[in-house]
Design brief:
21% strand, single chain, 31% helix, elongated, 21 strands
Length: 597
């Protein structure tokens, strides 16, 4: 018997509440199109069943969003009767449920009507608007009954955007989605009425329109101001959804350049296998996110038809449990006009000065050095973290973030202890920013001087001929440091071996093998202990390693990493007065890397 499909009759809550209180992992969605909360509670992958008002409200958000996307797919696939029926049902439901703001929302939110957040309302409205736009453009009958919904959604988006602008938040990611919702529903209403759309000045060209918003929220280096992979893609996807039917070459030059720059950011941070480091914040691995990346890549090809963007799409499709997503049909012909010219591939070293990242590629090792400002993405104390990836292996990823309603795990994943950074006396870093000292064709060097009072830390990451060099120098500018730790935070299984002499060895597993050699300028204690893995499953234990020096005014931690697929093989690593010496097995060759900034 086919599963019953039913639009839920309740208002939604906050989707981030859809998390197991015991294990910190997102709950199973169940049948989101069935319209009924899972019997006996939402299932946790660890066996729990959770049923609270907050979890029910969060599930209802997921169900409404799935329904809005379903209507959009139905409209695009020519299933007009079912698509119109769903839109008509939402018209009456919205009038019944969403006449006022959501009183149960958290005080910090810009409150929505159908959901706790105006942001979630806008995401839902974009899909509803595009469904009606598609149907209206081909003259589908029965849509006049949907006009009250479209008009009200555009009015609600405008009201919410005015609130943001009044409080100085033109650059907010809320603004992007509210603008996209206003455009989609306004253009849908015009299509249904059979009249030209007259909202360009309000929603695109005006002082608070999409063009002004992109000028405000995207920095010169191409990053959305929050410096988070998730929110960067979140904003870019909304902007491209808003530009349906646009010829990219007809956009204002600086706006087109910003959109291209945003796509270039994703191409630059992605590994050759299409893995996007989950920098700073946002959900980690989840099917809805994979679907979002897949949609974004399909849209982005018009602005950057680069092989690396296709690799990201392939990775997202591989991560998606249900590959029958309808995207190819959904986004066919989304833009008009030819694609913008293809740009060059990312350089071996790419620096993003505003966001504060440096990407260094070395013979199968993909490294990201994080030195940027604090707070853009909810504040992670992670200065001078070093993230390591293979083609697809997340050897040492940014750990990501759990759904925000889980306070304890959210705090843990924002902490210094969770990141491959450094700590002094076991304390958290202060809220601070680092600075780039130098970058060239093979290396990048950054420093931070305000993470701990009286402490200067410098990290230099360099691509060798067949390996990656990482040198972290910590100096007490007012005397002895006490206890200083350089941290390894694997996202895969790791073995560590202390040698009778010479460097400590590490072996990192996953889809690919990584070998590590670790030494220091003063005796250090390598300490292993179990810790939570990446944020998609905090209960998955990984081996955390701290290399700790005590009672010194200056310590240099040096590591060399080599992918098992690279050669000639490294056989010895040692610190000398001339620098960090790396010896190769094949010919006994000796390469010296400097340790100073």
């Amino acid at each position: 018997m086919a599963a019953v499909k039913r639009i839920p009759r309740e208002r939604g809550g906050w989707w981030h509440a859809y998390v197991c209180p015991g294990h910190g992992v997102e709950l199973d969605h169940g049948d989101v199109l069935g319209g009924v909360f899972p019997k006996d509670g939402a299932r946790c992958p660890r066996g729990c069943r959770v049923d609270t008002p907050a979890v029910r409200g969060a599930w209802t958000v997921l169900s409404h969003q799935a329904w809005a996307r379903r209507l959009r797919v139905l409209a695009e696939c020519g299933e007009d009767t079912e698509a119109v029926s769903g839109l008509v049902e939402y018209t009456s439901l919205y009038a019944e449920l969403a006449s006022r703001h959501h009183d149960d929302a958290q005080p910090w939110m810009l409150r929505g009507r159908l959901f706790h957040q105006a942001l979630t309302d806008a995401i839902w409205a974009v899909n509803v608007g595009h469904a009606a736009w598609t149907l209206g453009a081909r003259g589908t009958v029965g849509l006049a009954a949907v006009l009250p919904l479209l008009d009200e959604l555009e009015r609600a988006a405008l009201d919410a955007r005015d609130v943001l602008v009044a409080r100085g938040d033109l650059a907010s990611n809320y603004t992007t989605w509210l603008t996209a919702a206003g455009i989609a529903t306004g253009r849908a209403a015009a299509a249904v009425r059979g009249v030209p759309w007259d909202g360009a000045k309000q929603w695109l060209e005006g002082p608070h329109g999409l063009y002004a918003h992109l000028r405000a929220c995207v920095a010169d280096d191409g990053w959305e101001w929050e410096g988070s992979t998730y929110y960067h893609g979140f904003v870019l996807r909304a902007a491209l959804l808003a530009l349906r039917g646009t010829d990219p070459s007809a956009l204002p030059g600086d706006v087109a350049a910003r959109l291209c720059g945003m796509v270039d950011v994703l191409a630059a941070i992605a590994t050759d296998g299409g893995v996007l480091p989950a920098l700073h914040d946002g959900p980690y691995l989840r099917d809805p996110l994979s679907l979002e990346w897949l949609e974004l890549c399909a849209l982005a090809r018009q602005f950057a038809p680069a092989p690396r963007v296709d690799a990201v799409a392939a990775r997202a499709r591989a991560d998606l449990a249900d590959a029958d997503d309808g995207l190819d049909r959904l986004l066919d012909g989304w833009f008009t006009g030819p694609p913008l010219p293809e740009r060059s591939a990312p350089a071996p070293v790419t620096v993003f000065g505003d966001a504060g990242y440096a990407v260094v590629r070395a013979a199968g090792v993909h490294a990201v050095l994080d030195f940027g400002p604090h707070g853009g993405s909810h504040g992670h104390r992670d200065k001078l973290s070093l993230y390591l990836y293979g083609v697809t292996a997340p050897w040492q990823p940014d750990p990501g973030q759990v759904p925000y309603a889980h306070d304890e795990f959210r705090d843990l994943y924002a902490s210094t202890a969770a990141h491959p950074s450094f700590r002094v006396d076991g304390a958290e870093q202060a809220e601070c920013a680092g600075a780039l000292l130098n970058a060239d064709d093979t290396s990048a060097t950054a420093e931070v001087t305000t993470a701990y009072e009286g402490v200067r830390a410098v990290r230099r990451v360099e691509a060798g001929t067949c390996h990656l060099v990482d040198v972290l120098t910590v100096t007490g500018e007012r005397g002895a440091l006490g206890r200083v730790s350089a941290q390894l935070r694997p996202g895969v299984a790791l073995d560590l071996q202390v040698q009778a002499s010479g460097p400590v060895r590490t072996t990192w597993y996953g889809d690919e093998l990584l070998h590590g050699w670790h030494t220091a300028s003063t005796p250090v204690r390598p300490f292993c202990r179990p810790g939570p893995g990446s944020a998609d499953d905090p209960q998955q234990q990984r081996t955390r390693v701290d290399f700790t020096a005590r009672d010194t005014t200056r310590v240099v931690f040096a590591s060399v990493y080599q992918s098992a697929s690279a050669g000639p093989a490294v056989t010895d690593v040692r610190l000398t007065e001339e620098g960090l010496v790396v010896v190769s097995l094949a010919d006994g060759s000796r390469r010296v890397h400097r340790t100073e900034a």
